[in-house]
Design goal:
The chain is of the alpha/beta class and 228 residues long. The protein has one domain (3-96, 161-227): Rossmann fold (3-Layer(aba) Sandwich). The protein has helices at 45-52, 75-85, 101-111, 117-129, 145-156, 175-192, 223-227; strands at 3-14, 17-29, 34-39, 60-65, 68-69, 86-89, 163-167, 195-199, 211-216, 219-222. α3 (101-111) runs parallel beside α5, α4 (117-129) packs across α5 and α5 runs parallel beside α6 (175-192).
């Protein structure tokens, strides 16, 4: 498996008490697989995603990404692994207003010291893959909400990550554009062998056949067992 969350536990102070957010949470996502994660508001979905993306250390448990156990890594090594192996898609695309669509992707390579002819060609290929090759010179203000989110998906794939984590990527889109964005994300994950975990408030937008899990009482369970 490309992403493995093994017995994850996270607690936070809650006044004089301690609030358990995740307890003994397990999840594995294979290369090219898309998993949709649902859960009630405040159930810990964003916390689980932060742990998976090495943005937060769990109190207990292991996070294994692309075969590397991040549990014992220091801060710099975790940051390096996150930069090379994890792509993030946010609720809104959070694009830089002054940069064109292709420059948004090229910036990722620049930050990682790898902006060369190969990276520029990859940026162009990714925009073509999400249907925006003809909009590569457009800036965010010239793009629709759906187009901006597609740029965000392409950007998440720019460093050829092993894992993509998406936090309610269609929350700002209408149903039609939300389904389009989900379909693109799933298609590119399968084509590029990327393990993809999507937190969603609208699981009906997920493509048919997507495995669905649910965060319930701090643990990851089969969504069908809880939701029917």
């Amino acid at each position: 498996m490309t992403l493995v969350l093994d017995h994850i536990a996270v607690s936070v102070p809650d006044g004089p008490d301690t609030l358990t957010i995740l307890r003994d949470a397990d999840l594995a996502v294979g290369a090219g697989e898309v998993v949709g994660l649902t859960g009630a508001s405040g159930s810990g979905k964003s916390t689980l995603l932060a742990v998976a993306g090495l943005l937060r250390r769990p109190d207990e448990g292991r996070v294994v990404i692309d075969g590397t156990d991040a549990s014992s890594l220091g801060r710099r090594a975790r940051t390096a692994l996150r930069g090379s192996a994890v792509g993030l898609v946010f609720q809104s695309a959070t694009l830089f207003p002054a940069l064109t669509a292709i420059e948004q992707l090229e910036l990722v390579a620049h930050v990682n010291g790898r902006l060369d002819a190969g990276a520029r060609a990859r940026a162009a290929e990714l925009l073509d893959a999400v249907g925006l090759g003809h909009r590569r010179r457009a800036r965010p203000a010239q793009l629709s909400g759906g187009e901006r989110q597609r740029v965000g998906i392409a950007r998440a794939l720019m460093n050829e990550p092993a894992v993509v984590l998406a936090d309610e990527p269609t929350a700002a889109l209408d149903d039609e554009r939300g389904r389009e964005a989900m379909a693109i994300l799933a298609s590119e994950a399968a084509r590029r062998d990327v393990a993809t975990l999507i937190v969603t408030h609208n699981p009906d937008q997920l493509p048919a056949g997507t495995r669905r899990v649910h965060l319930h009482d701090g643990q990851v369970v089969d969504a069908a067992a809880v939701l029917g």
